[in-house]
Design a protein that fits this description.
This protein has 15 helices and 24 strands. With 557 residues, the protein is of the alpha+beta class. The structure holds iron/sulfur cluster (2 copies) and FE2/S2 (inorganic) cluster (FES).
Length: 557
């Protein structure tokens, strides 16, 4: 067992508190509700202490003649105040330390720093894309003055600089906090940014022959406290105060970074990282962040379709599901295969398992997606829920291992029908000619593909931001997807499509809500015992820790 952390006594605005040794002064204040404005400080980066916005008054116990702290009438140390203000972001608390966060001196310091910062700042607020989430604006209202004493010409600096493929820089707005520089050096391990020139002429730039093209570049936009760095993809698309934010997770790899999906009027405008120290800290990669534009594609599949003679024609859910059930019943005894997706939620995979059982399917697998891992966040497994697919037996420890056998069986004619759930069969090396030879393809999907074009029954499903459900990331953390927008047209939640398909084949199945599906999972899968969708917190739960808790609880009965 590790030794208990030493607690230190600290006085904040006249009240004594205790904090663990090693706590930053700014963090100690935050924990007791005393917010200290700051620009350069970021809890996940080093603290250079260069913006001076976090100045406070600080004191230490006054030593008596015996060098021990002199005690006052209340038995607490008498404080000897340091005459000059101190920054609170770069030093840790000490025993007996005293802090004044709202004294006249502290307020005057903030006011002065704001005046300095705004001297050369352009009057861009009305046209700046950071408006609504700009600390300079906010602190200016709270800690600044309404008028300026600066009569001279403002310094002109580079504007609209393409710092990299995804980040635009407006140097005049930069307050030289160096957060972006430190992020690139300390977290992204790609030291490409730095300051050049001196004094008021200092500006941010990329080193000669370098670009801000890291796969983590957009995190600099998140942490830039002003509108100097903006996302080239998002800028000028939507004012942030119009955005509705939904907690969710990224589904572009097995890490499952926690996200906020920003939407307005059923359109997804951006994804930003949501802090989860068990998954992604405060960051996410650009690839995952920008991988949502297909949601707004005009090509989205919106209506169920069935094949009449040679052509796919629009249908309705009742007829399409009935046709799928009727056709599927003709293919039993190993003549049908099922290709699922490790992009599906646990709830969908669970129902897939039941569909497999109801049709006696033996040939089933998922389509693996592999890329390079980067030792930061991006996983080599580009599917978000491979562990879920393994847990429910849709695939084994080697995802995709069965696919070549399935391809062979299709070519030899022993498999005559395929259920393709959210995957394009040409991705498993089946050709268009192979698809034409099949007697039946029941496909779900969100965008057209060779498979949907050759489907007998096409059932349009929902994308990650359009549905609820859960997934298990590569570290065994169960996390929740939440619906941020509605699926287009008549497209449905995939779990509902699967439920209805099972219903066509086996009769009623007692599932009305996605919660009912999760309840079935929790009853059947030991790793999920005792859980419900609502018990998965916004930061997910570790299945290993959950299993340990369940074991302890059972042992104590
Ligand atoms: S661009 Fe933004 S994050 Fe970078 S130094 Fe300037 S103000 Fe700070
Ligand atoms: S690391 Fe993976 S989960 Fe995280 S944002 Fe990138 S693609 Fe998404
Ligand atoms: S936040 Fe402390 S000096 Fe910048």
């Amino acid at each position: 067992m590790s030794a208990p952390t030493e607690l230190l006594n600290v006085q904040i605005d006249g009240v004594w508190h205790q904090f663990p040794k090693g706590t930053r002064v700014i963090e100690a204040c935050r924990r007791v509700g005393k917010f200290i404005p700051h620009y350069c400080y970021h809890p996940k980066l080093s603290s250079p202490g260069n913006c001076r916005m976090c100045l406070i008054e600080m004191g230490m116990p006054k030593p008596g003649p015996d060098r021990k702290p002199e005690l006052g009438a209340d038995g607490r140390p008498v404080i000897s105040w340091i005459p000059r203000p101190q920054i609170s972001c770069a030093q840790d608390i000490a025993e007996g330390m005293a802090i004044r966060t709202d004294s006249p001196l502290a307020k005057e310091c903030r006011n002065g720093v704001m005046e300095f910062l705004l001297i050369n700042h352009p009057l861009d607020c009305p046209i700046c894309d950071q408006a609504g989430e700009c600390h300079l604006q906010e602190y200016s209202v709270e800690f600044g003055t309404a008028s300026s004493r600066f009569l001279e010409e403002k310094v002109k600096k580079p504007k609209h600089v393409e710092l990299g493929p995804r980040v635009t820089l407006d140097d005049e707005r930069c307050i030289l906090c160096s957060r972006c520089i430190r992020f690139m050096k300390e977290i992204a391990h790609d030291d490409v940014l730095g300051f050049v020139s001196r004094g008021s002429y200092t500006y941010l730039t990329a080193y000669p022959n370098k670009r801000l093209d890291s796969n983590y570049s957009l995190n600099t936009v998140d942490i830039c406290p002003v509108g100097a760095l903006t996302s080239t993809d998002f800028r000028f698309k939507m004012r942030v105060w119009f955005l509705k934010e939904t907690n969710s997770i990224c589904t572009s790899c097995a890490t499952g970074c926690n996200t906020l999906i920003g939407t307005r009027q059923n359109v997804v405008y951006r994804q930003t990282p949501r802090e989860n120290n068990d998954v992604n800290s405060s960051w996410m990669c650009d690839y995952g962040r920008l991988n949502f534009h297909y949601l707004n594609s005009p090509e989205r599949l919106q209506k169920p379709q069935i094949r009449e003679k040679e052509a796919l024609v629009n249908s309705n859910w009742k007829s399409a599901l009935a046709r799928a059930g009727e056709e599927l019943r003709k293919f039993v005894n190993g003549r049908i295969a099922l290709i699922a997706s490790a992009r599906m939620t646990n709830e969908e995979l669970w129902l897939t398992k039941r569909l497999i059982a109801s049709l006696g399917i033996v040939d089933h697998d998922v389509v693996p997606r592999r890329g390079e891992a980067d030792q930061i966040l991006l996983s080599a497994d580009r599917n978000p829920n491979t562990l879920g697919a393994q847990l429910f037996g849709i695939t084994n420890e080697n995802p995709g291992a069965k696919l070549s056998e399935i391809t062979e069986k299709v070519r030899s004619g022993s498999i005559r029908a395929i259920i393709a759930l959210g995957e394009d069969l040409t991705d498993i090396e089946l050709t268009t000619d192979d698809l034409k030879k099949l007697s039946l393809i029941v496909a779900t999907g969100i965008l057209p593909s060779e498979t949907t074009r050759h489907a007998t029954v096409l059932l349009p499903g929902s994308a990650f931001a359009e549905k609820r459900g859960s997934m298990i990331n590569s570290k065994g953390r169960l996390q929740r997807l939440n619906r941020a927008v509605q699926a287009p047209g008549e497209a449905r939640d995939d779990w509902e499509i699967l439920r209805d398909l099972i219903q066509q084949l086996t009769g009623t199945n007692g599932i009305y809500l996605i919660e009912d599906v999760f309840r079935q999972i929790a009853d059947a899968i030991p790793e999920m015992k005792g859980l419900s969708l609502s018990k998965i917190s916004d930061k997910g739960v570790s299945l290993a820790e959950e299993a340990e808790e369940t074991t302890k609880a059972t042992a104590s009965i």
